[in-house]
């Protein structure tokens, strides 16, 4: 008989052999419920020690029914599709994988930024239509000497800062949970969000979607940005207030908005962003590489094993739950969790 049970209810991956091998080698039972009807899959979760999932919305009602569950794992960095507060109240840990796709998202943000600065997609489209614009009627400006503002200096924001270190840019960042020493090591100056918006030629967003970051970039922040600024969002769609973004793009205050994430996903077919001449869009692909997908599946399975054998995972979206479980003193958080602990302490949670 297996020592613990792990149920995978939704993922969309073609292969699950990696997770199955890791979990069964540790003495666990692995149940892949992807192909089962949703009610049947959810019923299996009621007897699971660990539930693994990707995009499904996990409600308080669902969590209440998972009476045996010790840990819910989201395949990914963000946990905004899980009612984390309810999980904490019920004594359920919420795990995630904040170390995966760091290079992928940072390089995707940089690719979107460069494409906007050099007018690559728009020129490509004109070439397809037979144009040849040697007079360069659309102005392009040198990148060197300009200012990049990074909103969120966690792992991905820090990786972006490292990528552009030799590019002759002034790099600003805003992040209330990052130690000043970390910013100094990156040659980044920490400023307020207001100062960053007012001084940056390019702004790249790298914050999780939390109550305090929902619509963080709204009317006031967009109005404060320089005319001709470029905004890149590879974080979460809900970080930007979409109506305010359209209002900033329509009169041409912003030169470009490059978006990989949207408040509503998939982006509706009739969204005005899809046809906006100043918008560059990709379909939430920043996370993806074959390497990052393997890393994600392996790390998620390792989190499940940690709890299945009686330990604690290094990465938790709700470390405060360990206080009520009486296990906080034995927790050894991964380095990437330090910001979360500072945030929770500041919020009094």
Strand content: 15-25%
CATH architecture label name of the largest domain: 3-Layer(aba) Sandwich
The count of domains is: 2
What ranges have pLDDT less than 50 throughout 5 or more consecutive residues? none
CATH top level class name of the largest domain: Alpha Beta
Could you give me the name of the CATH homologous superfamily of the largest domain? NAD(P)-binding Rossmann-like Domain
CATH topology of the largest domain: Rossmann fold
Measured distance between first and last alpha carbons: 39 Å
Write the layout of secondary structure elements.
Elements (H helix, E strand, L loop, with lengths): L3 E7 L6 H9 L2 E5 L5 H8 L4 E4 L6 H6 L5 E4 L9 H6 L3 E3 L6 H16 L2 H9 L18 E5 L3 H9 L6 E5 L5 H6 L3 E2 L2 H7 L2 E4 L13 H6 L4 E5 L8 H8 L4 E6 L19 E3 L8 H19 L12 H5 L12 H10 L2
Parallel strand pairs: 1-2, 1-3, 3-4, 4-5, 6-7, 6-9, 7-8, 9-10, 10-11, 11-12
Helix pairs in contact: 1-12, 5-7
Describe the overall structure.
The chain has 349 residues and is α/β, with parallel strands linked by helices. The protein folds into 2 domains: 4-100 and 289-347, NAD(P)-binding Rossmann-like Domain (Rossmann fold, 3-Layer(aba) Sandwich), CATH 3.40.50.720; 102-281, NAD(P)-binding Rossmann-like Domain (Rossmann fold, 3-Layer(aba) Sandwich). Helices cover 36% and strands 15% of the residues. The chain contains 14 helices and 12 strands. It has helices at 17-25, 38-45, 60-65, 84-89, 102-117, 120-128, 155-163, 180-185, 193-199, 219-224, 242-249, 290-308, 321-325, 338-347; strands at residues 4-10, 28-32, 50-53, 71-74, 93-95, 147-151, 170-174, 189-190, 202-205, 229-233, 254-259, 279-281. The strands form 2 sheets. The protein has a 7-stranded parallel sheet, with helices on both faces. Helix 1 packs parallel to helix 12 and helix 5 crosses helix 7. The longest helix has 19 residues, at 290-308. The chain is globular, with a radius of gyration of 22 Å. The chain starts with a strand and ends with a helix. The model has no long low-confidence stretch (mean pLDDT 94).
């Amino acid at each position: 008989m297996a020592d613990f049970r792990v149920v995978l209810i939704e993922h969309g991956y073609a292969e699950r052999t990696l997770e199955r091998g890791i979990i069964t080698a540790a003495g666990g039972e692995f149940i892949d419920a992807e192909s089962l009807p949703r009610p049947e899959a959810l019923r299996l979760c009621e007897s699971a020690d660990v539930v693994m999932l990707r995009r499904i919305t996990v409600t308080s009602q669902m969590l209440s029914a998972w009476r045996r569950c010790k840990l819910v794992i989201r395949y990914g960095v963000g946990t905004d599709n899980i009612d984390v507060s309810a999980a904490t109240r019920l004594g359920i840990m919420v795990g995630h994988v904040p170390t995966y796709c760091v290079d992928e998202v940072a390089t995707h943000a940089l690719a979107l930024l460069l494409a906007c600065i050099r007018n690559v997609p728009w020129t490509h489209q004109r070439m397809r239509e037979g144009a040849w614009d040697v007079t360069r009627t659309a102005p392009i400006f040198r990148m060197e000497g300009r200012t990049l503002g990074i909103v969120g200096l966690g792992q991905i924001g820090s990786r972006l800062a490292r990528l552009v270190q030799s590019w002759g840019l002034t790099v600003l960042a805003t992040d209330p949970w990052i130690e000043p020493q970390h910013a100094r090591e990156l040659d980044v100056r920490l400023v307020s969000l207001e100062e960053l918006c007012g001084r940056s030629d390019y702004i790249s967003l790298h914050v999780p979607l939390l109550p305090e970051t929902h619509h963080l970039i709204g009317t006031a922040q967009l109005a404060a940005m320089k005319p001709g600024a470029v905004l890149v969002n590879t974080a979460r769609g809900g970080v930007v207030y979409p109506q305010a973004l359209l209002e900033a793009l329509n009169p041409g205050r912003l030169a470009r908005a490059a978006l990989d994430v949207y408040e509503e996903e998939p982006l509706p077919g009739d969204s005005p962003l899809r046809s906006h001449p100043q918008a560059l869009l990709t379909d939430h692909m920043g996370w993806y590489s074959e390497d990052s997908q393997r890393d994600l599946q392996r790390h998620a399975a390792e989190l499940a094993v940690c709890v299945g054998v009686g330990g604690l995972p290094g990465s938790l979206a709700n470390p405060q739950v360990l206080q009520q479980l009486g296990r906080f003193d034995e927790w050894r958080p991964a380095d990437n969790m330090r910001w979360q602990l500072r945030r929770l302490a500041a919020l009094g949670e």
